[in-house]
Each structure stands twice: as C-alpha cells, then as structure tokens.
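User: Hi! I'm working on a homework problem where we have to compare a predicted structure to a textbook description. Could you give me the structure for the chain below?
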Amino acid sequence: MNASEPGTTPHPDGPDTAAEVVLERTVEWYDTDASGHQHHSAVLRWVEAAEAELLRRRGLDGLFGRTPRVRHEVDYRSRLWFGETVRTRLRVARIGRTSLTYAFDVHGREGLAARGTLTIAHAAPDSPSATPWPREVRELLAPRETAEVTG
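Assistant: Happy to help. Predicted structure tokens:
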C-alpha cells in the first residue's frame, strides 16, 4: 500500500501527528438494551467508527476489508443512557509484524464508561493467514498527537 494506490493518500497533518482520534457521538435508541442503558456491543461500534475515521484521516482507507478482528477486551465502568453524548478516544498502542493493537476509552457525562483494547491483523487479499504490515502503513500509524472529530 502506498500513496499512489487508490484510496490511499498521505496524512494531511503530516507524518508527525498522532495515530489517535477522538470521536463524539450520541447514544441512540438502538444503542440501548431492555435495561435502558447502552448495549455492550454499542461500545465496540463506537470504537470501530473511531478506527474508520483514524484510517480515513491517515489516507489508509484501502485497509478496509484487510484487517480482521482477532481479539477485543472491554472493561465496562459505568452506564451510558439514551441521548447522552459519548466521546471515544482510540489510539494505536502497539504495532507488531502482522497485528496492531488499539487502546480505547469511552467517556460519558459521568466520566469513564468503558476502557479496553482491540487487536486486528493485516491480511492481504486471498491470503490464508495474516501478512506483514506494509512499511507505509507502519509509518502512518506511528503514535504522536490527537486529532478530534465531531459528527
């Protein structure tokens, strides 16, 4: 994957900005369960939305469909209610040869609501197993500072 590949452009903020994003959302009715607070799966959807934004901002949307999830862990700290604004912060915690681990936290009006990690692998099309990250991807995902997104 390189800057000339379709769907890939250099990060607009340059190579020295963080592999981190903060995404703000509202807890929608479909995010809740019968108890009235967020369903456990809503947190992972917000994390994946933050991941998608991070990859778009890095010019790495060509990775969509090439990064299967291999592990996630979530520590739920408090409940989030319908209509509440939540902020999901996602950052690259570690890049291995074929996998990448994100760390995330989700905050609501009462503070920290969930914290965890999501590990993905790189899988080239038609490959039966994980494949090494391209050098350009590793460079674009090197951690530095935060970018904020609202939407």
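For your comparison, note the following. DSSP finds two helices and six strands in the chain. The radius of gyration is 16 Å. Good luck with the assignment!
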